[in-house]
Structures
1.
Amino acid sequence: MTEISNIDVTDAGARIEGRDLSAWIAEIRELLRLALPLVVTQLAQMAIMTTDVVMLGRLSEQALAGAALGNTVFFFAWLIGLGPTAAISPMIAHILGARPNDRAGVRAVTRMGFWAVLLLSLPLAILLLFTRDILLALAQQPALADAAGRFVAPLCLGMPFSLGFQVLRNYATALGKPNTSLLVMVLTIVFNAFGDYALIFGHFGMPRLGLFGSGVSSAWSYAFSCIAMTAVVFAAPVLRKYRIFRRFARPDWSKFVELFRLGMPIGLTMIFEAMLFNAATLLMGIFGTESVAAHQIAINVASITFMVPLGIALAATVRVGLSAGGGDRQGVRRSGTAAILVSATFMCLSGAMIALFPYQIARLYFSADTGAVALTVVFLRVAAAFQIFDGIQVTAALTLRGLKDAHMPMWIAGACYWLAGFPVCIGLSIGLGLKGLGVWIGLAFALFMAALCMCWRFYHLSREQ
């Protein structure tokens, strides 16, 4: 009797473990199916930025440094607008998790996302017109502030198109069709590269506009991506059937309010992180043009690798949101944990590659072996060390977004980046005289704290779901 009972218990345990293992395998498969196109899309988006950086680096170090400073202002404004658009994906995922055939709800969320873009674009564009004055008030060198103002001026017109693309992209992602935005981004890479080459250097009969030409090319690329994504939505049957532009003037105030209630903390969370890195760029401006140029290159490299866990994290938002909308507590925990583990694994590998080949990577960006190359190598070695923390923190943060948990991650980001990380940046770079190296050590410390706190928050909440 005892023997039979033990066999039964063992068999039952094996069946439970088998189901658990198959559930994890299925989750990772679904995560990767959704994440891979998102990762490639993010890398394609970085390819556009990298094209700008490489071509401006060939133009001059001052042009590169001016664009870097200009982007600190542009991305601050852009992230404010991005918040409500980022809320679209988890909101749609929750709707479909609870009611898979609710087309009206999906359509209303997307429509209110466009309304949010229309509301925010004009004040954000006006803010960008004061880029030069903002940078001068932040004690930047007048020559670099002037260059930044020239670069950002055309981007005012590109702002609404860039945010409109994000609305359509998050709509498509929530419906499990990330390949659509990937196609658009690949086309945009070609469009932007052609525009940069023509307008920066004056090829193909176009005027030689230098730094201003790079800004014009970026603005055109934003418009192209939005128009192309709209065309794809009309062409793809799965996306077209929701008829997202139907009755565009009809308000849905509850969803509009929820977009801002959820989206503004999301935007502030991203701003806290992005502006830490932008503040680091401003600190580098104190140490001279070479430091800014080297910092921009190292940031660009770290941003490229960061696109992979960001793509995984965007997929995790949808996967966690679907489970949360359907009331599946175990599914929430499994989706988030799988995403964090996959991101951490990739970032360990990327960190090793950066640590092994920092000089070779740096030389890809410069036409000569200058002092900026040596500084870039130093910064890249620190970037290699914080890769895993960066991957974990963004994935954990976006799993929380899938739970519609926005306020606590905002406070965590504010504390980790500005109460912990930024004082370390200033203390080491200025107080101890480590200059750029001190700034990068402070960045690494901030990301470590954020990874720790975001993971704790996710496991705490997923236990309660």
2.
Amino acid sequence: MSDARYRHPISPRYLEVDRQGVVFNMWYLAYFDDALAGWLAAGGLPYPQLLADGYDVSLVHTELDWTAGLAYGESAEIEVGVDQVGRTSFTLVFEVLRAGAEPEAAVRLCRGRTVYVVVADDGSGKREIPASLRAVLEAG
């Protein structure tokens, strides 16, 4: 992933760390949700606006692969990139990177690939990707 992609900062809280001294695996999905919202806002579509327009997104599939752990007190960034865009769904890739002294020295800790489906905010089901969201996806 290039340095031009959106990077969302994270700093693990004490309660997110397990007995092994690293962030417990389930927290990565919460980090990805937070990074998704930040990425949308950075692209000009704050999540509250997506909801106000009558849309939401539902996670339908995710894969995570870890290469190293993130400990309490360490800071990292989640890099967000677009993998695929369909008619009603899209796939994002999340890379959790521990900061290095130089940007190229960042260490990849975890990689996630998540498929989202656009749904109506009123619960009435799947919808085509709205133009406002598609613009962010195509720019990403």
3.
Amino acid sequence: MAKSSSSIRIRVVIGSLDVGGTETHLVRLLPDLAAEGFIISVLTLTHKGHLADDLECENITVYAPPRIIRILQRTPLLSRLTAPIGTLVYLSYIFMRKSADISCFYLPSSYYLGMLAHMVTGDKSRTIMFRRSLNDYQRGRFLIKLYERWLHEKVDMIVGNSKAVVEQLITAENVVPDKLRLIYNGVDLSDLHSNGNKHVSVREELQIDDNILVMTIVANLIPYKGHMDLILALSSFDKNQLIPWKLLVVGDGLEARSDLVSLVNSHNLEEHIYWLGLRRDISKIYSETDIGLLVSHQESFSNAIIEGMAAGVPMIVTNVGGNKEAVVHEQCGLVIEPHNPEQIASAIARLSNDKVLRESYGKNARARVHEKFSSAQTLAEYLGLFGSDNNII
């Protein structure tokens, strides 16, 4: 007999709950699943992270390794061997003490160690790996590639968050299609509307006049996110080519930021660019954005894109991963090739000088999110995934 949701225990394994796309996705999703009656716990591999409080406030238990293991993880000479063993012992202990019906593994490290803990403890839960990126991280790592393909044979199901990810799992990693599912990320549309009522607007906070074109990129400061390409594109404009503009850069990454700031300064763009760091009010920022940007070199399916679309922002994105599955070219925005500052500049010029086109694309973008990428739609897909028709329970 299939279990009802009120008796299904879901164990989620992830590196940490620091701010990131996957982590934000879980903070949106897991309380909704808990409200449906699922009993949920989260096991982090390193530390709880900044977003853990959001889940614990919803009575979702979040575990982290004991202090001695966290010390091992931070010790350079020990972190490569001893720390993974210690982390595996911690996971195995929790697996044996706190049983579950379903174990969900998010991001590679949790898959590698979580599945191993599942096997060595004889854990009886059904297992699901959630692939949240293309497999570029396997490049040049032959043993990792072999180990992951071996795990693919052992895991019960694999869920990708874009067609690009699912197709790659079939063609490049030989996963049988019957084991695969596709579930897109979703945006909480009610949160979007509530954030539009803040007393102090982003333009007021940053002292940006209403006649200034505001562009926003939401992406951690990692080289493959393409920030350098964007800065080079913006440096190619002379004063007469664009209406007055500002760029809001939302994301973390102190090491990469210093290089980006140097590039900005070398092109005398410092007065145009605001480095906002980590922000929790993304929908508020997008509500006053004229053009959204994501010019990454690799991607799976970006929360930042659909958050911008939900706010009615026309998006300029690169043709990598699932970006074009979200942004329909010349309907919701513009899809350009990666590693190409010239195409970025051309797309910005086209949208910046045509307010009617921006509004048309933004309207279409909002409608597309309501139709395909709402959190309600994502929740329905997860409920179907955990249902008896998929033989997970």
4.
Amino acid sequence: MATSTLSIDLDAIQANWRALDRVSASGVQTAAVVKADAYGLGAERVAPALARAGARRFFVAAAEEGAGLRAILGPGPQIAVLSGHMPGDTGLIRDADLTPMLNSVDQATRHLETLPGHAFGVQLDSGMNRLGLEEGEWEAVAPFLLEAGPELLMSHLACADDPAHPLNAEQLETFLRMTEGTGLPRSLAATGGILLGPQYHFDLTRPGIGLYGGLPFAGAAPVVGLGLPVIQTRMVRPGEAVGYSCTWVARKPSLIATAAAGYADGVIRSLSGKATVYAGDVPCPVVGRVSMDLITVDVTHLTAMPAMLELIGPHQSIDTLADAAGTISYEILTRLAGRLTRFYHEAKA
């Protein structure tokens, strides 16, 4: 096999959903965020597993994702669209029975005019300055939007991964001010917000990265493993360079393994000279540039050369790898490319 192998533990995803459901306050519904093809892990397998675990509401980024998810899940579960009701979305929203989270006055007008009586929610900007109606806009349109009967009022925390950040409390106060007295279901917390405590939970929580084994949910079961097949090894003499641009030069006789993974597989180029892979329990440094299809690894210290090297697994989490790359686990997951050979593990399909 000349492609890297990506193992995805559906049991672990289900366990993480159940754990975050337990952390959510009593009486709070726990949804599941499966945007970007379930964070790159494959919504076709991940979403049904989450539904079997108990998830009944799902969040995606765009109507096109929602239509694809509806084909996977069938009728019944609610599928909410975070980008709202964009131009050209009307047919998809209607035919796939999607629930757009309206972000602007224009979206509200479009939805109520083209799909009167169709379910919707409203996203409010409580301080992130990204999506949603600002406080003044909400005050202006709330009377007619509330009369139309939104299913959910929601907002999103900007700094939930930092419990001490003052913006968390400021956003909570703003969200309360914008929504109290409406009598409608409310949602503020994604994974980080769930961990901030019950005052952030309201009626619905929306875990995302925590489902897939990432921080800030430190108690998450690991979900992903990535093994890289070794194609070739060679001895490199002192003074010889390895890889593009000669960024690594051997100081002593070195055994270099070339493994089948590169930035076309989601092993991002910023890991060049910074990443570590594992041969069993033994760490091995990546040397030279990460290229499109290959990485090179110094295995001089190994007593035997394994057929596979571990990039993500028991010895290195998605967050540890992200730290080495100077990024976050979300980017590591969502960059994992279709060329990888995928294996899904689930005790009961």
